[in-house]
Design a protein that fits this description.
The structure holds three protein chains of three kinds.
Chain A lengths: L2 E7 L5 E6 L4 E4 L20 H7 L5 H7 L7 H7 L16 E6 H23 L5 E5 L4 E6 L5 E6 L7 H17 L16 H13 L5
Parallel strand pairs in A: 3-4
Antiparallel strand pairs in A: 1-2, 1-7, 5-6, 6-7
Helix pairs in contact in A: 5-6
Chain B lengths: L21 H6 L18 H16 L5 H28 L11 H17 L5 E4 L6 E6 L21 H14 L3 E7 L9 E7 L1 H10 L1
Antiparallel strand pairs in B: 1-2, 2-4, 3-4
Chain C lengths: L7 H9 L3 E7 L5 E6 L9 H18 L14 E4 L3 E6 L5 E6 L5 H19 L14 H11 L1
Antiparallel strand pairs in C: 1-2, 1-5, 3-4, 4-5
Helix pairs in contact in C: 3-4
The chains are: A alpha+beta, B alpha+beta, C alpha+beta.
Chain lengths: ~220, ~220, ~150
């Protein structure tokens, strides 16, 4: 069983975090302004110079992320420029990586749109306050876990996987509480920044790699 | 085997027809090359027939102005089939006989329609022949589950329409061909066990009844 | 099935029972051409609401096939799960969708077989009926009766 990617959305419908594993078909980098800073380095276009200067006053870990200029193809360069752990960078792209043809910011919106529509559809059909759990296509399976505070954890895995809701819940009660909620340098609900930070990324990564689903 | 005839065959000479490829037609000759007398194994797929008949009804429906008109047209189409069916069933039944015969009495003729014609067209005999109690000139052939009605669901605003008018046309042609002119109509007479049960009503011309009386 | 399903005990059991709640047929343009409920357990919606949901499902189905994280073609969503029911989708080569709402316990193989049977019934009773206009709402007594036999 394989886990492909993780998206976290806040209650304002914006993507605040993204991470992927074994994903062999990637989106194009997001257009500038398409997604918040500090969501994931792997999927943003290199910011122009002017942008860098406005972000300069910040020195929080998340800021090193946004200021690191680099795209997926230029991993060694990023390492040279930033002091951040290699985990924060995109994993070196395998040779066979192809593109979905979608920019990352569009992909993020589509994923959210699908999740929200299905959530509403399930509620409407059941006539109760029932949650949408997952859906499966021939190529992948999408899992949703929604917190009471409106955060949505979305995970893509291979279609044969059992429900991964509990994994998403573990991410929520573990790394998310520990390194996002209790992290004073992360402004939750900021509408301006994502929640990416070194410890959270490393911790989620460790959790996923350590789980029994990881090949 | 018949390579010299290839250019004459309507199927091998052109690609316009999507008929079975040569390899299959070698083991099983296509419909034009089959022996006229062999009726076994010359079956047509039921869905293909259903789709064709469905198209016939739709085509006809576009060109008529009411249920009666539609039934009349289906009857006419059936009539053209019936006159050919009579020809081939008569040929198949009698070609080997030393003294070929033709039915001249009504009941044997009806029996022939009930059994031979139905089997040739629908692959099974009809279910009953009845004589009307009220009218001496009326006879009925009953099919509990007509093949052509199997997938047809007549909408409410077409109430009373029976697509078996096509079968009625066949019967009318056969009777005509045998010398029993009649007016034949189809009626939907469902029962709880047979929701598509259909009655083919035959109203014979007076001349036929008169002749029957003489022959008695 | 149960006349007094208001009691919590029966409500619980109704979710663990295998059940088929309903069937939709969605044409290739996303229009709902057939909708029928078979068992209680889901909300009773108006015809218009079903129409909207079918349109939504049609759109989602198209998007889900584009979100695949791996190379190669992905189908659209085949099974969508809620907590007490799931939505099973069969997309035919011609673009018609058969959507079966069932209890989550219903095994995938049973549902696949059933959807195939429904498809073949549709081919017979709907497509071979001269009074049916393709892509338009299905009004066929024969189809209703045959489905009743399949699903009960």
């Amino acid at each position: 069983m394989t886990i492909y990617s993780l998206y976290i959305y806040d209650r304002h419908c914006t993507c605040v975090y993204y991470q992927d594993w074994h994903r062999t078909r990637r989106p194009k980098p997001a257009v500038e302004g398409g997604i918040l800073p500090a969501v994931s380095q792997a999927v943003v276009a290199p910011p122009p110079e002017s942008n860098n200067s406005t972000l300069a006053p910040y020195s929080s870990p998340r800021n090193t992320l946004t200021s690191a200029s680099g795209v997926v193809v230029a991993v060694s360069e990023i390492n040279a420029q930033s002091t951040a752990s290699p985990l924060l960078q995109a994993p070196p792209s395998p040779i066979g990586v192809t593109s979905t043809g979608l920019a990352f910011d569009e992909e993020v919106k589509l994923v959210y749109g699908v999740v929200l529509s299905l959530r509403n559809m399930i509620k409407k059909l059941s006539g109760r306050d029932e949650q949408f759990v997952n859906y499966r296509t021939s190529a992948y399976k999408l899992h949703l876990f929604e917190t009471l505070s409106g955060y949505k954890f979305v995970m893509l895995s291979d279609p044969g996987t059992e429900s991964l809701r509990f994994v998403l819940r573990q991410i929520y009660v573990g790394p998310f509480l520990e390194y996002v909620v209790r992290n004073p340098l992360i402004t939750m609900d900021s509408k301006e920044y994502g929640i990416d930070n070194e410890y959270f990324r490393a911790s989620v990564d460790r959790m996923i790699r350590g789980s029994s689903f990881f090949p | 085997m018949n390579s010299s005839l290839d250019h004459l065959s309507p199927t091998t000479s052109s690609a316009r027809f999507s008929l079975p490829s040569k390899s299959t037609s070698a083991s099983r000759p296509n419909i034009y090359e089959r022996n006229l007398n062999k009726s076994r194994l010359s079956e047509v797929s039921a869905p293909s027939f259903s789709f064709l008949f469905s198209e016939i009804v739709q085509y006809t429906q576009k060109r008529v102005s009411g249920i009666n008109d539609l039934e009349r047209r289906l009857n006419t189409l059936g009539y053209r089939v019936g006159s050919r069916v009579l020809e081939i069933t008569a040929y198949r039944a009698e070609f080997s006989s030393k003294a070929p015969k033709r039915e001249i009495r009504l009941l044997p003729a009806l029996m022939a329609i009930h059994t031979q014609v139905w089997r040739a067209v629908y692959g099974k005999p009809a279910d009953a022949i009845e004589k009307s109690v009220e009218n001496v000139d009326e006879y009925m052939i009953i099919d509990n589950d007509p093949l052509i009605e199997r997938h047809i669901s007549v909408p409410r605003d077409f109430a009373g329409l029976s697509c078996s008018s096509f079968s009625a046309g066949i019967v009318e042609a056969v009777l005509d061909g045998l010398g029993f002119p009649a007016r034949v109509t189809a009626h939907h007479t469902p029962t709880s066990t047979y929701p598509t049960r259909t009655t083919i009503l035959i109203k014979l011309e007076k001349s036929v009844l008169d002749r029957e009386d003489i022959l008695k | 099935m149960t006349t007094n399903s208001a009691t919590p005990v029966l409500k619980l059991s109704s979710t663990s029972f295998m059940a088929i709640f309903g069937l939709w047929v969605i044409n290739k343009a996303g229009g709902l051409v057939y909708q029928r409920n078979f068992a209680d357990g889901l909300a009773q919606l108006t015809a218009n609401e079903y129409l909207v949901l079918a349109g939504t499902l049609h759109g989602i189905h198209a998007i889900t096939s584009r979100l695949s994280p791996i190379p190669g073609q992905s189908s659209g969503a085949q099974v969508i799960e809620g907590e007490t029911f799931k939505i099973n989708v069969l997309l035919t080569l011609t673009g018609t969708k058969f959507v079966l709402l069932t209890s989550p316990a219903e095994p995938a193989s049973t549902i696949d077989t059933l959807l195939q049977k429904i498809y073949s019934t549709y081919a017979e009773k709907v497509m071979q009926n001269p009074f049916h206009t393709p892509e338009m709402p299905i009004r066929s007594e024969a189809f209703d009766v045959s489905l009743g036999g399949l699903i009960g």
